[in-house]
Amino acid sequence: xxxxxxxxxxxxxxxxxxxxxxxxxxxxxxxxxxxxxxxxxxxxxxxxxxxxxxxxxxxxxxxxxxxxxxxxxxxxxxxxxxxxxxxxxxxxxxxxxxxxxxxxxxxxxxxxxxxxxxxxxxxxxxxxxxxxxxxxxxxxxxxxxxxxxxxxxxxxxxxxxxxxxxxxxxxxxxxxxxxxxxxxxxxxxxxxxxxxxxxxxxxxxxxxxxxxxxxxxxxxxxxxxxxxxxxxxxxxxxxxxxxxxxxxxxxxxxxxxxxxxxxxxxxxxxxxxxxxxxxxxxxxxxxxxxxxxxxxxxxxxxxxxxxxx
Length: 309
Ligand SMILES: [Zn+2]
What we know:
By secondary structure, this protein is α+β, with helices and mostly antiparallel strands. It contains eight helices and 17 strands.
């Protein structure tokens, strides 16, 4: 019996070795393909980089205190020196590390600190005063990448693949232009869209309706129409509200009955549930939905909603 088991183990080990061989060959193939693609792509991306690498083309450089817009982050990374696919990865890493928060600072149990946009560890001797400056942080991050042979091995976020959830958003930030986004419907069925942008509203004094109301039963999931950061935004009028801040602007959902996922979310994540909180207490439950492209004034989201819902 023991021999049978041994033989079986030996066979399995042999198979594993063969598998491993194939795997390693596969990884090398992928690496080679990636390197070729990178070479091919870098011209295209670099060109695009030159075209948009002007902060003035970003809707807003800084917003919500010390948080950089995705676009500004992309400009910063490009100006530090990243190009091509690595530019997208660098932006994704910063999003994963700090969420674009310029003054992000975390202290590690071993007495070191992770500082700024790219959370650069103080073991590299960086003075905090410099790392909390966006440009300085980007330059330090790029220097690290260079000294590692143009790789991101210094970032555990990268090694663990945690930046992957932000790649789509990073790539979106690299292509300024009209939001070529296909939204996911912000409210699950059954629901009813109202084409009521600009309609008179009197709650909290007269104002034109800044969004569309999407009527649905209490508890119906409310979803992020695109990838972004879901942020609590409660108010007296809006009740429980959530903003989803994406590469091209933000949406605002109001009158929720409760919150869902907050923080970085992929498109389609449940960020809350339909309700009638705030000044909707006496009306039918609905999601008051606003769309603020480029983080500016609300515009009518109806065509987006028609396409998505
Ligand atoms: Zn409304």
